[in-house]
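Notes from the 1:1 (GR / supervisor)

We went over the backlog. Supervisor wanted to see one worked example end to end before approving the batch request, so GR pasted a single chain during the call. The sequence is below; no edits were made to it. Supervisor asked that the structure be written out right there so they could see what the output format looks like.
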Amino acid sequence: MTHDKITAFAALLRRAAEAGTMQNVTFHSPAAGDALKCRGTLRAIGGQTLVQMETFLTEGRVSQENIAPADLEAAAERLFDTYRKADLTDAGGTASLMVSKKGTVTLLRKGQIGEGYAAGSHPASLPRPGNDRVKRRLLTGEEPFLVPLGISDRTGRIHDKMQPKFRQIARFAEYVAEAEKKLDPDGPLTVCDLCCGKSYLSFAAYYVLTALSGRDVRMFCVDRKASVMETCAGIARASGFGGMEFYAMDIGDFDPGCAPDLVLSLHACDTATDLVLDYASRHRAKIILSTPCCQQELNRALDCPTLDFIASVPVLRRSFAATATDALRLLKLEAEGYRTDATEFVDPEDTPKNVMLRAFLRPDFDPASADAAQKRERYERTRAFLYGDGYRGHELNNF
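Structure output shown during the call:
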């Protein structure tokens, strides 16, 4: 469909995309066919700034097309053969176009769309797109290793079912980048991802540390599942991640040969998290980043009459046990020479298992000091309060 106002709207869309100020555009109210709406956002794909158009069809189907800003005007005019309305949101303003059933076309605009655009400027010379994914995350979804992991497709689009998982590893990767700044800036890094499973986090952390931070990294990924470790090793080879090594074994039997700079763990279930933390502290890892999962041990073993008013209500008992377990873990690490904290690392809507435990080895720690003895006594007293004096789990390592 052609009309001078449709042409004007299409020109505004191109202007916003080329300026990098476009936030999104939505075509809706279809006249016929199985298309419900078409939504476009700016994406950086393969070194180019493109508008990714997703067409939502009946029966839950979605099709996708990446369009260069220079081709947007023609594409927009074609879309008006299907849709009667479109809304453009730009950093500098908005525009809406409506086509009535009688063919009357109305264009409304507000503000300065594409502010900063200069006629004849090449898109490459203009600011990078104002894209939330680019601004807020180290990982954008376009990293090649995400494709064989089943997280994104070859265009850089995150698969719908993997969106929560991607947000988890992308946020964890940011913590890894922050941790790297606290390590010795010179020399190679030794990193262990323990109970690594499919190694989503391993690949993300290795990419951030090597490609983005420029570090020389040797990363050990350890898990019991031999077939999974073999698959991950193949992905590492195909991705050119030569510093990654995969071991199918119990983490207690693994020896990195040195004190790790960084130990990672994402959602190691129940007491597996305790095994990771024990391993890391025993090997004197400089930094530990761990997100626990499925804390059930204290829920089963809680033996504290003072807390019966909580323990007698199952849903409250589970919630309390999970929180108390993480707090006890931090006390244990403090008694072993670490400065600790805990933070919520992703939106609870993505996963309820979203507590990040962080521990930083204190270089001045003296296990023979009065302060160390006080921390050990506090941990042991708290453990006995929760589990009862006869319980033998969660004991301190020998110093």
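Supervisor's comment: The longest helix spans residues 314-335.
Batch request approved.
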